[in-house]
Amino acid sequence: MSKTSESKFAKFLKKQDIVFSPKRYFIDALGAMAQGLFASLLIGTILKTIGEQAHVELLVTIGAFATAIMGPAMAIAIGRALNAPPLVLFSLVAVGWAASECGGAGGPLAVFFIAIIACEFGKLVSKTTPVDIIVTPLVTILVGGILSVFIAPYIGKAASAVGNAIMWATELQPFLMGMLVSLIVGIALTLPISSAAICAALGLTGLAGGAALAGCCAQMVGFAIISFRENKWGGLVAQGIGTSMLQMGNIVRNPRIWIPACVASLVNGPIATCLFRLQMNGAAVSSGMGTCGFVGQIGVYTGWVNDVTNGLKAGITAMDWIGLVVVSFLVPAIVSWLVSLLLRKIKWIKEGDLKLEV
Predict the structure, then answer these.
(1) What's the pLDDT tens digit per position in 207-220?
(2) Secondary-structure breakdown of the chain: helix, strand, coil percentages, each rounded to the nearest 5
(3) Is 288 helix (H, G, I), strand (E, B) or coil?
(4) Nearest to 220 by CA among 299, 293, 142
(5) Using alpha carbons only, what angle is made at residue 34 by residues 247 and 124, rounded to the nearest 5 degrees?
(6) What is the pLDDT of residue 257?
């Protein structure tokens, strides 16, 4: 291909807003996918749980509706992150449903990859023909449908295999894997990527899900506590039940401020897996939510309820609640605070390093 042809093609891609960028695909799209999961599977699960506990059948029904459209919700969210034109965006409903259904247990990861590819192909032909209303949906759905039928099952199996391997390893080596899963997922939560989407894509539940939750809580509560002197109550709430991602700018300026939360993650993981045997048997996406809106804690409670209903658990005990509180709040707060005191004393963390920009 000549330089002139390359230039024309590059200009065409720019005109169609097709940008091959890791940020767009693995930060923007992955983050949007988590929002789609939240607005369907997660909220639906919460509504179903409330309805079942309160014996309100209407909430159970509405919750079931919400969980059923997980795939389309994720695909639409991804399309929006990729600036999909309306016809492409609407066509992704079918793509998301197909990828989720064909992907099986690893459906979220299948939706992620297939929705991106189908969206970009749809954008490639968008508004390039006089019959755009036919061509654009046709290309988007055809590409997404073919990939869903022939590729999604393998993506789903691969995701399930990785997730199952992590969960198996955590059961086998709860101390070491508790540390690793807690640290890695916790770091993912603070980075501008989605820990919730990663947990959902890999289907991290059980003991590994508990370790992931422990790591996320350590990051959120940890940053909220160690930055209290700079950010007061507003910062405590914004980070503690919002997101520790707010500290990314400060981390870039002084990476040492990340040490207390990471140490808390390393400590909290084994406490969750070895001491309390904390399991996430609710929706896998909850494993990567930490204390954000207390969705992680609601997910654990949902798992308890499901286990009791299915006869896998005799009942919810006081030790269950103690473990959840200790792992979610006490260990992250105490460990991160103690480590931060040491780092402030040796001047690795200075006054104002954790100040959030208003």
Answers:
(1) 999 999 999 999 99
(2) 80, 0, 20
(3) helix
(4) 293
(5) 110
(6) 96
Which residues, at least 6 apart from 347, have a Cβ–Cβ distance to it below 8 Å?
A: none
Rounded CA-CA distance 219/292 in Å is 11
Query: The tokens 């919700």 sit on which residue?
Result: 73
Residue with tokens 């910062």: 235
Q: Which residues of 255-283 are buried (b: 16+ CB within 10 A; e: fewer)?
A: eebbbbbbbbbbbbbbbbbeebebbbbbb
DSSP 3-state of 280: strand
Give me the sign of the Cα torsion angle 206, 188, 340, 290.
negative
**Domain residue spans in the chain?**
16-156, 173-345
pLDDT of 226 reads: 96
The single-letter code of the amino acid at 357 is: E
Residue 293: name the closest of 216, 240, 214 by CA.
240
Residues of the chain with pLDDT under 70: 1-6, 358
Under 8 Å between Cβ of 142 and 95: no
Distances (CA, A) of 232 to 1, 236, 357: 59, 6, 13
* CB-based burial label for 309 (10 Å; 0-12, 13-18, 19+): exposed
Report residue 284 as tokens.
């896998």
Tokens of 193: 């990527």
Q: Give pLDDT, residue 119.
A: 97
Q: How many CB atoms lie within 10 A of CB 318?
A: 7
CA-CA distance, 215 to 231, in Å (whole number)? 22
Amino acid at site 279 = Q
Residues 336 and 318: their CA atoms lie apart, in Å, by 26
Q: Report the C-alpha gap between 345 and 251 in whole angstroms.
A: 19
- The string of DSSP letters for 215-266 reads HHHHHHHHHHHHTHHHHHHHHHHHHHTT-GGGGHHHHHH-GGGGHHHHHHHH
pLDDT in tens, 122-162: 999 999 999 999 999 999 999 999 999 999 999 989 988 98
Amino acid at 8: K
Upper half-sphere CA count for residue 58 (Cβ side, 13 Å): 0
- Residue 280 phi, psi dihedral angles, 5° rounding: -100, 100
Count of positions (residues) in the chain: 358
Through-space distance between the first and last CA atoms of the chain, rounded to whole angstroms = 50
